[in-house]
Write a structure and sequence with these properties.
Blueprint: H1 2-5, H2 8-22, H3 26-37, H4 46-73, H5 78-100, H6 105-136
Helix pairs in contact: 2-6, 3-4, 3-6, 4-5, 5-6
C-alpha cells in the first residue's frame, strides 16, 4: 500500500477502476441482508431480494448522477440539492419496501430503518473490498 501511495494519481486511478469494475459486488453483498429481514416468511426467495436490490441500486445510481449534474449546473444550490437527495433515500427505501413486498406502513417503516443500517454495513464491506483490491492486491 505504501508503495502504491507514493504515486497518488495512480492510486486514485486504480481505486476508480476497481470501483467501476466491482460495483456489481454490491448486489451479492446486499441480498443476504435483505433475506434476514424476511427470514421467517417463505413467500419471497433470494431472487426476489436480488430484484429488489438491483432496482434500489439503480435508483441510487440515477439519483447520484442527477445530483452530480444539478450541482455542476447550479453550484450555489449544491447544499440544498445534496440535502434533498439525502432526504429522498429513506423515502425511496420505504416506498419500495412497501410496494415490492406488500407491507403495511408499520412493517415498511421498521424494515426501512433496518435496511438503512444494513446499507451502511454493506457499503463498509464494499469500501474495504475496493481498498484491498485496488491498493493491496
Amino acid at each position: 500500500v505504501a508503495k502504491k501511495l507514493k504515486n497518488p494519481d495512480l492510486a486514485i486511478y486504480k481505486l476508480q477502476q476497481t470501483t467501476y469494475k466491482f460495483a456489481f459486488l454490491l448486489v451479492p453483498l446486499s441480498i443476504p441482508f435483505m433475506a434476514l429481514i424476511f427470514l421467517w416468511g417463505r413467500r419471497f426467495t433470494l431472487y426476489d431480494h436480488g430484484v429488489f436490490v438491483l432496482y434500489s441500486l439503480t435508483f441510487m445510481a440515477i439519483l447520484l448522477m442527477a445530483v452530480a449534474v444539478l450541482v455542476s449546473l447550479l453550484p450555489s444550490l449544491s447544499t440544498s440539492i445534496s440535502g434533498l437527495a439525502i432526504a429522498l433515500v429513506p423515502v425511496h427505501i420505504f416506498a419500495q419496501l412497501k410496494g415490492t413486498y406488500s407491507l403495511s406502513p408499520w412493517g415498511a417503516r421498521w424494515r426501512s430503518l433496518v435496511v438503512s443500517v444494513f446499507c451502511v454495513m454493506v457499503m463498509t464491506f464494499f469500501i474495504i473490498a475496493i481498498l484491498y483490491l485496488g491498493l493491496g492486491h
